[in-house]
């Protein structure tokens, strides 16, 4: 297995993002709020690296690998009841993988059929969607899951 060494870590403030710079020349930008902010931040990072280097540096192969979103439900979620219902009568959008073991992890993990996303649902009203490639995919996934999970909110 090949592990790349993290050579530098740069943070910029206007957009609040961090760049992980690896020995193979790849830059991973984390912490931005949108795709546009990510492109701007990468441009800033390339400028910073260019000014510190005597070699010509340019950006190529920009792509979004992972979009993460979080939102809150209007009340605490009854995860044991949600888990039992999803196992017995899963909705059409749900893949076979559902995991909920509060002794190891406090949230429920749901995988969707048509997407590579993973949804983490917590009793504390919070929900995290990860693994999407676009912001549009996040909105589609949220629309699919919201009403099914809303039925298990305790403080509606």
TrEMBL record:
Pfam families: TBP. Keywords: DNA-binding, Transcription. The keyword Transcription regulation does not apply. GO terms for biological process: DNA-templated transcription initiation. Gene3D superfamilies: TATA-Binding Protein (3.30.310.10). It comes from the Eukaryota. GO terms for molecular function: DNA binding. Belongs to the TBP family. This is Uncharacterized protein. The lineage of its organism: Eukaryota, Metazoa, Ecdysozoa, Nematoda, Chromadorea.
